[in-house]
Amino acid sequence: MAIDIQSVSFSYPDGTAAIENVSFTVPTGTVTAFIGPNGVGKTTMLELVAGDLRPQEGVIRSDSEVAYMRQNPGFDDLVAATVLDALALSLPGQLKTIHDRLQALYGVSEGEVDGMAIAAALEDWQSLGGYEAEAQWDQVTRTVLSQGMGEASSRVLSQLSGGERKAIILRSYLVSSVPTLVLDEPDNFLDLYSKAWLETELKASKKTILVVSHDRSLLSSSVERIVVLEHNGVWTHGATYATFPAARRARIEKLAKDLDAWQAEERRLFRYYKLLKQRASISEGMAARADAAETRWLRFKDAGPPPLPPPEREITVRFEGSRTGKEAIRLTEFEVEGLVGAFSATIYNGDRVALLGENGVGKSTFIRELLDESRTDAGELRYGPTARLGFFSQNNEIDAGERPLLDVVAAHFRNEQQARAALGRYGLSQHVRHALDELSGGQKARVQLLILETRRPNVLLLDEPTDNLDLESILIIEEALLDLDATQLAITHDAAFTRVFNRFIIFDRDGVVAETSDRARALDIASRRGFSLLDEPALKILSV
């Protein structure tokens, strides 16, 4: 086994248990998915596997070096960090040490350059495969940025989109010489083209890969088995997501039956020993049998019940919509300077519109521009007379400061009791005293949805709403959006999620905007690299 985890437990310094008695294996050469509800401890488990954390109990073994790509593999200062810094994250340990040494040597003042030290470091760099890594990096930057590494390496990360940063880092890990990879939500921020590429690369890879993902397409096409971490323990599904929902349903039913059977047996043993005790009170010969029956009951009870079945639904949403008039949004020669050319479109009440296109074409900027009803310099924006806007940010932009979660949420309710009830509906009742920054990405997304719910919007502007949510939460949000009497515009690169929508507006790199109601056609076009909408005669071109 490439990775072997046995009876591992870990608690944070404040005593919060993050991982309790977890055991599973990742066979050599397999792609194993690691899934579970938001906040259950998946990232903590990956940090334990990678060696960033040490378990308080249990053992973790790996038969090779492990490279860990974090969920948000960013830097404290995106203005100072460069493309080269991002590429170097994937280097094996020895090469990373030499790379850092070389960067330090190159960074000294001109008169203090140590030529001998640089030569020695370059010799080590060559002997350990550093130049081979650079050749691979060159292919990565040419694919993502259309520039060779020599030109791209000094570009600062703040100049790139989130998708471009993620693609550079992810591609460098997949071509690295490290044989075992741990990838935490590698598909987040990727566009449809890059997600399709990732699925293909995972299927073809000879590496051992443990990947956290909530993307149903990836889980259905690119993994061989799924390890599921839930609040009641860990279990393994030895196939893809295609058969996972049925397997989980069967497991929940079995756990419920096992619990019912245990409770029935516990009651039977209890009643039997009580019966014998009553008989022993009038017959001394029954005392020994009564004592034995009590002992059997106590041992059975002390052994404890089987695992509780996990909840079917981690969250319960209560969005309330309303009508905005016949026209919810009217755009007339609307443009986003430098990104989206002028176009006109009308979004009608109740329309569910998916905004598709490659990373970097201006979709997020466009949806933010829709929040500015006062803009007059780049076309006309008009909302229906009773429109109430609600915005979901891809980056979970909540003004929370260091306040505990309960205080943040209570500001949107009449009293604390209502806020606690809402947090319970979103599976966050155990985190009322935690600061927002202490929550997982998925939990932050739940908080944002909860706050959005309180505003009762009838025009929803959603930027990648499923990116950080777990599988069960995504399904629940899909149900809620389908039932909601509200107009919805959503940027998404989640192919399965697009089933919620009935209109598809596509953006290309040249600033052209087009529309179709054909979901399959829209996904096919948006999954290509560098497509031109002017070459697609079947589409309705919206650009002026």
Textual characterization of the structure:
The chain is of the alpha/beta class. The protein has 17 helices and 19 strands. The chain folds into three domains: 3-245, Rossmann fold (3-Layer(aba) Sandwich); 253-303; 327-400 and 452-541, 3-Layer(aba) Sandwich (Rossmann fold), CATH 3.40.50. 38% of the residues lie in helices and 20% in strands. The strands form four sheets. Strands 14-15-16-12-17-18-19 form a seven-stranded mixed β-sheet, sandwiched between helices. Helix 3 (93-106) runs antiparallel to helix 4 and helix 5 packs antiparallel against helix 7 (162-174). The longest helix is centred in the middle third of the chain and has 37 residues, at 244-280. It is globular. The protein starts with a strand and ends with a strand. The model has no long low-confidence stretch (mean pLDDT 91).
> Largest sheet, described in full?
7 strands, mixed
**Under the CATH scheme, which architecture of the largest domain would be assigned?**
3-Layer(aba) Sandwich
Count of discrete alpha- or pi-helical segments spanning 4 or more residues: 17
Multimerization state = single chain
- Give the proportion of residues in helices: 25-40%
Globally, the shape reads: globular
Report strand %.
15-25%
Total number of beta strands: 19
Strand order of the largest sheet: 14-15-16-12-17-18-19
Q: Are there runs of 5+ residues with pLDDT below 50, and where?
A: none
Question: SSE layout and pairings?
Answer:
Elements: E1 3-11, E2 17-26, E3 31-35, H1 42-50, E4 57-62, E5 66-69, H2 83-88, H3 93-106, H4 115-127, H5 130-145, H6 149-152, H7 162-174, E6 180-184, H8 192-204, E7 208-212, H9 216-221, E8 225-230, E9 233-237, H10 244-280, H11 287-303, E10 327-336, E11 340-348, E12 352-356, H12 363-369, E13 380-383, E14 389-392, H13 405-410, H14 416-425, H15 441-454, E15 459-463, H16 471-483, E16 487-491, E17 503-507, E18 513-516, H17 519-526, E19 540-541
Parallel strand pairs: 3-7, 3-8, 5-6, 6-7, 12-16, 12-17, 14-15, 15-16
Antiparallel strand pairs: 1-2, 1-4, 8-9, 10-11, 10-13, 17-18, 18-19
